Amino acid sequence: MANEEGNTGNVKQQLEKVFDAALRATVPNETDVKPLVAACTAKFGDYQCNNAMGLWSKIKGKGTDFRGPPSVGQAIMKNLPPSEMIESCSVAGPGFVNVVLSKKWIAKIIQKMLIEGIETWAPRLRVKKAVVDFSSPNIAKEMHVGHLRSTIIGDSLARMLEFSNVEVLRRNHVGDWGTQFGMLIEFLFDEFPNSEDVNETAIGQLQDFYKKSKQRFDSDSEFKERAQRAVVRLQSGEPKYHQAWAQICEMSRKEFDKVYKRLRVDIEEKGESFYNPYIPGVIDALSKKGLVEESQGARVIFIEGVNIPLIVVKSDGGYNYASTDLAALWYRLNQEKAEWIIYVTDVGQQQHFDMVFSAAKRAGWLPSEDGSYPKASHVGFGLVLGEDGKRFRTRSTEVVRLVDLLDEAKTRSKTALIERGKAEEWSEEELEQTAEAAGYGAVKYADLKNNRLTNYTFNFDQMLNDKGNTAVYLLYAHARISSIIRKSGKDIEELKKTESLMLDHADERVLGLHLLQFSEVVEEACTNLLPNVLCEYLYNLSEYFTRFYSNCQVVGSAEETSRLLLCEATATVMRKCFYLLGIVPVYKI
User: Fold this and answer.
1) pLDDT tens digit string along 31-80?
2) Residue 469: left (phi > 0), alpha (psi -120 to 50), or beta?
3) 19-22, long-range: CB < 8 A, 24+ apart
4) At what angle do helices 206-219 and 180-191 cross, to 10 degrees?
5) Cα distance between residue 177 and residue 578, in whole Å
6) How far is CA 312 from CA 171, 179, 200, 302, 556, in A?
7) Which residues, in sequence order, are CB contacts of 513 under 8 Å at separation 6+?
8) What pLDDT digit, counting tens, does each position of 398-436 carry?
9) What is the pTM of this model?
């Protein structure tokens, strides 16, 4: 019997082990052959091994007995070691080995998960420690719809990596350093000569404070000069200026934290200022390696194939984004010992990060081969558009504040629940919690279900619809499953220990197989940094459950206990999908 221990939830990996033994027996002299196993879409099987054609091209000139890819496929099939996983095999076309999994084995693995917990289905990645750099708003400016995608996508990627047993450093690279602080600090001094008077109430909206200081900066040349001098005084560490800077940052931080709390996002701030002390040493090290050159008074790094250089020291001696990003990358690799550093920003910053990563490869910080670790990845995303196909803005052409957007999502969700008579059935607390879960969940899912590289249109009516591929539909599907289990009156925890899961009906088997593919889907979403892969899986899971429930009576049937276990397994996997997408499940509708 082939060794099938290890991650029992990952079918693809387990089949790879079985096919690896078959390949070694088929072509013992070809040592560098890795099994190519993929889930099937055809009617011939559940999975397919696609090695035959590639193997044939390797061995056909070496005096082999094989007559072509089909005979290689036949040999691979014959050399498969006995395995309780496999019901049957067949060879199709140019040597594809199709595998039908044993429904008994599928049921056994699902039941094992129900007893031991879904964590036993967590993927196993090659990485132990990663940095996810996401959200990253600017101090003294409010979080707006432009920060929504970075925050939601970054949080979901961090959750999936954490589930896969990776230690994730969630980093908020806030814009807390730069020339704008001179303007803000001088305006603060003018408005509040006594620093003890500075507080949130006195300043009011930081956004308005920022706008007023900017107007003054643009219209008053004497103020502009003072602001420019203030930058130098702040950067040289004068206590009065440092204190004012810290006050502005703290007020901003409190506003950001309100948004993160509502979105249930954990993130640790390490802003631009944190990396400032490391910049001179990093640039000096890069200079010693011959990477930094003089160009038009500035110090730059030329990147092969790019016609503009990466400026690391401006002509006035100041630093910029590239200086900070190189220092941050150095710190993350050398101090935090991260093996994978992931940057979640809009696609417009792709070239900048490509240049930073190229410089890091030239410096020997990162390996030159793309598949090796440590590695850095840019996770780009498209724009959030309004109904007019342009950037999503308010009627007064202002960017949409994130808090306003979340308020409206919750309000609309609550209104829909009240219209369905839930205010009479539920307590106020239940109504609030469900409205929040559905409203915020709808906003997150509408973003995550799209391939992140595309733009998407923000539409409340679509995202809060309870039909189609929406969070509301999926949350209601989960609540329905929870209701089936509740109404059965059975103790599901007891059933897990005493009863057995069977998958005799075709729709039970389809649902069971899909449940079993959860682990490899999460692994694919992590590897390719694409949360939409998990969204598609979750929506399909809900569809397969609906088909099963339509065709297979649960409560009151002869197969009731087995089918209740299948309901519980579906709900368990759905809840984990929701968690990985940052969505809170609901149990009543």
Assistant:
1) 888 999 999 876 789 999 999 888 888 887 676 778 889 999 999 999 99
2) beta
3) 19/49, 19/51, 19/76, 19/80, 19/97, 21/79, 21/80, 21/81, 22/49, 22/76, 22/77, 22/79, 22/80, 22/81
4) 100
5) 36
6) 22, 16, 36, 11, 71
7) 46, 101, 106
8) 778 888 899 999 999 999 999 999 999 999 999 999 999
9) 0.93
